[in-house]
Amino acid sequence: MEKKTEDLLLETLDNLEEYEFKRFKFKLNEINLKEGVQAIRRRKLEKADTLDVTKLLLDHCKEQDAVKMTVEVLRHINQRDLAERLRHDALIQEPKSETQQVLEAADPELFQERRKATQQVLDKLNLVQHRRKKLRLTDIQKISSESLENQTPQMLEDLPWQFIRKVMSLNVGARNTSLVHGAYGSQGIGGDEEGAKEKEGDIDCNSVCVTKAKTSESLHPLDVLCAVLLCSDSFLQQEILSRMSMCQFALPLLLPALDTPRCTLLLWAMRDIVRKWGPHSLAESRGFREESLVLTSMPTISFVRLGSCSFSKSQLLNEVLSPSQQYHDFFIHRDMESGNIPREIADGLVEISWYFPAGKKSSDLFAEPVAVTNLRGDIKSHWLQFSFLTQVSSAVFIVTESISEREYKLLSSLEGSDTKYCFILNAQAEKHSEVLEQLERLAPVLKLCKPRLLVKSTILNKTEFVEKVQTTIGTIMNSTTKMDNMESIAVHARKQGIQVDEDCEECQGAKKRVKIITAKINDVEKYKEEIMRPLHQPRKMPRVEQCRIGQQGDTPAGGENRLKLYTQHKQYDLAHGMEKFIPGIEKLPREEIVYFLKCMRLDLDHIARRNNISQMKANSLRVEHFMRGFGHVYETESTQVKEGKMLKTQRKYSHFPGLAADLMLEGFPMELIDGDASNIPLQWVTDVLTELHAKLGGRSRMLVITVLGGQSTGKSTLLNTMFGLQFAVSSGRCTRGAFMSLIKVAENFQQELGFDFILVIDTEGLKAPGLARQEDCHVKTMLARVVTGLSDIMVIILENATEKKDVLQNVVHAFLRMWEIGHKPNHQFGHQNISDVSAHDQNMRDRKHLVEQLGEMTKASVEKQSRELAFSDIIEYEPEKHNWYIPGLWHGVPPMAPVNIGYSESVFELKKHMFESIKSDSSHRSIKDMPQFIECLRSLRNAVTHEHLDKTYNQLHVEYSGSAYNFIEEMDPSVSEKVTFIQSQPPNELDVGKLLCENQDKLICGEQKILDNPNKYFESRAKTLHLIEKHREEFIRTTTNLKCEPEHYLISKCKEVPQRQSIFRKIFEKRVHWSLTSHRGKKGKLNKRECEEKRKKAPKLLPILFVEKMMIHLKKDLEDQLSTTSIKIPKLKNLLRYKTKPFRIKVKYFELTYFKHVKEFYTKRHQHKAQELVKFLMYNYKKYTAEKVKSIANDDDTYCGEFLLMINEWLQQEDVQELHTNTYFEIDLKIHILQETLYEFQMCYGFIQENYP
């Protein structure tokens, strides 16, 4: 029998406590339901009981209006469950069919009520302005004074900002919405001495009531969550849910109808979540699975409430999902802080959480993943959500303590459902026996059996009851065939009339564009090789970058060939992927571009997981590869215009830098250093930052913060936690190269800090696994040097002892180089995975050891420079201020471990300290703007690039020269023997052909040995191959010529026989003439002693051919060395014409033009150091020359090549390299040494007589 409206109203009011009934009457006097209906006077309500109030309501207005008025008042006093029950009992006596859009969607009046309640919550939180103009991620990232404070909120409007900031910083206390008033904040608990002296028994009841009222002034955490999501755009929603997932918070699956007539399924908001777990089916092989959360199929278990319940359903779920010894509050429950505050707009919210096994059968609760949903509120009030859950769930657990006849009818409507239903009852409930009777009636309808009836009684303690629930869930999981992922769940939602967040036109359009690109990617490695490689693979197509960091420079040869390279690039059609990618960036609205890039990244990551490709491998394919191609296309066109091969009016891609600048303003990281090629695309980066400077109206003063450390030490995670950034941190992924992200400083904070933006640079690990080859280590050193030169603040992450030494070596070397040009960045050392509360004191010894290590490394770096320096000389370092101990990220064992709150708090303290030091040093700090940053980047790139280019080529040249010299030395005895034979034979008796045939086998074998060493060098230098590839043919050609030289030499010796006789005749005649002239006018013969003195004073003339061959050696060596520079080969005079004078160091010998602000003392110090080294070198060479002259048996010039080889090897030594000398120094030094050598030969007694008798 249906109840009358009067009975429903009376039953509802009888459920109110005395205090709540008083509040009801007080509020009822203020309610005006609609025009023409006045509020009930307070005089009539003062002494009225529940029956009197019911009669007053029905007398005052119509039955329908009386119910609405009662519902409105109940909501105002936070009795929402009673309000929803009354509304449904009075207005909807029978449930509507599932195919109809029931209750909320079908009730426009309810929609208006919810809109009004939502409006009130937004008013309290001061979020009304964001209802239409949504909050964006850049709004949250903005640096303000509030973002650097960690205070408990004092007003309701503080709650949303506290929640967002704490969630973005992975603080598991983000859901606490307790308020602390100013009085409490200033005095603290027990902080007022006078208050602490209150007498025992002195209790003020009014004070107690006030305290209780102040607690109720706050909002339920779920109300704050719903309000924040309502006021956030879809990208901020996605970021919030991703961080909530890391904190192991239950996520909102269905948002109630707040400002829309329908509920909303948050599918897009969960797209970015990736989970890794160890299914028991792979336990033996210790395998794991990694997949996007929305694409993972698993059973869904739902928990709902029917009527009121004395125990917390959410707390029960937390216990069910928490592993042993690792309890965690996935769901907010009434016993949590702020959990007992009545909900205002969150009723009807469906939350979802998951359990993922770790692959350990002994400790895992379930063998496979399972999703658990939780409906907030009574199912009678939220039948649409309940109906949806019955469609997608393998089982629904209904928690209840009473089942009325009406509720029986509601449950009976579920007949025929393939979902399993379980009931959780409380044996202590008053109506327990009645519930059991109703369940007996429902058993055949819902196919209930005894195992699905779980009774919470005193017989079972809490742990035993939780285990019983877990066992029931496990049994259902083993028997169910309903395995849905989030995408298939969204299909059910659409059928139910529930809107899905990603069904907007912008998202769907972006997904279609992405599918066109990714549909052709089946094998990632093959796709990248065939489609994407032409953009940056020299074997497929010439490179178009200006340089690789520390590996290629703007050489003259490169300059001559660059136009050819770019022209060849233009001849290639863009790959299919790039053809579709470029329109996705340049022609779409801002919001759709962001959707496009997000979808692109999600699809590529999914394809990589599908192909079992680690994100750290070189053959992985990511969005940055497409963005890199985007920049290559622009650089190609720019070079064509610069070289005059294209008119400016013909350009199609000149607007690309503006698009990239817009993406940076949206918070997207931009690639600064290409990690695959170790390349700085200088033209592209320069133009993007220039465009960004223009878009900012020239207000681009910025502070640069960089992180350095070993691979997989959590650098990207730390920056994301600290600043709310989006650097890639997906599982198994390592940053390659360097990426930069821009953060705005709030306008009211800019003057205090002294800059407008923060540029954050995330870098590749300084020593990644599998990247330990010599050239890779050098690249890491160059990377450290570049980012150190760009940085104002550096955070150096140190984790384990193995990598710590390698990281510190790179850091110290980079600091030393920057100190030499007067740049000293602020630095902080972060020690990861140290969580002891006494870490700071306990690690005093480690800090001292770190100081010792830094000092030793500094000493080792400068010991070859004949000076002494401590680490504190090159950088300001105080162990107590510059070391931070950061606990591990996870609290427990993944995959069910939440983030460690100590990690978040430590990172926040580090951030706070950095900004405090910024403010204190603002008067001494020089802040760069974008143009200055660009100039600094260009200078650093040129410095490290040219240094390594010269080093790379010179190393190869030394390899070749050594092999060539060994060949000459091996051939020398045989050739000398032949020369002696030729010189002793009359010209008409020489058989040249016979002489040459005797050496052919030896020559061929020697040629192969020469080529072997350079070939091995080419094979071992894969990453620098493109630098020296063009010189391969040159070395082969030179080797062939070298092989032919002995043949040509013997032939020339045969031709010299007549010439030599003539030369010696002239020399003899000249000496005779000199002797006669000097003796003329003297009487008598010269005695033996006088003859010897005359002979010593006679001119010692070297053969002309000998000097000329030395000149040929020198010229050829200089041609080889200068082939990689823009310096022309100087016109060399005969070596005998150079004046013998000391070698003086000149300023032009040093390559210091890369640094714009070098101090004067730096140049003078290098000049003095160079002079000392040259002096030492000359001493050794004179000593060596004297020994060499004594051992020379003929005029063979092999020793000249030996001298040049030794000079080249000396120039490659580290202490010489650190002087930054250029090619002018090398030219003048070689000429001086050879000239000195010839002078020594001239001065040696008997040179001509011994070698040319």
TrEMBL record:
Q: Show the InterPro entries listed in the entry.
A: DAPIN, DEATH-like_dom_sf, G_VLIG_dom, GVIN1_dom, P-loop_NTPase, URGCP, VLIG_GTPase
Q: Which organism is it from?
A: Mauremys mutica
- Protein name from the UniProt record: VLIG-type G domain-containing protein
Its signal peptide is none
Segments forming domain Pyrin: 1-92
Which PANTHER family does the protein's record reference?
Answer: GTP-BINDING, UP-REGULATOR OF CELL PROLIFERATION-LIKE
Q: Which lineage ranks, top first, belong to the organism behind this chain?
A: Eukaryota, Metazoa, Chordata, Craniata, Vertebrata
Query: What family is it from?
Result: Belongs to the TRAFAC class dynamin-like GTPase superfamily. Very large inducible GTPase (VLIG) family.
The VLIG-type G domain extends over: 699-938
The molecular function terms in GO held by this entry are:
GTP binding
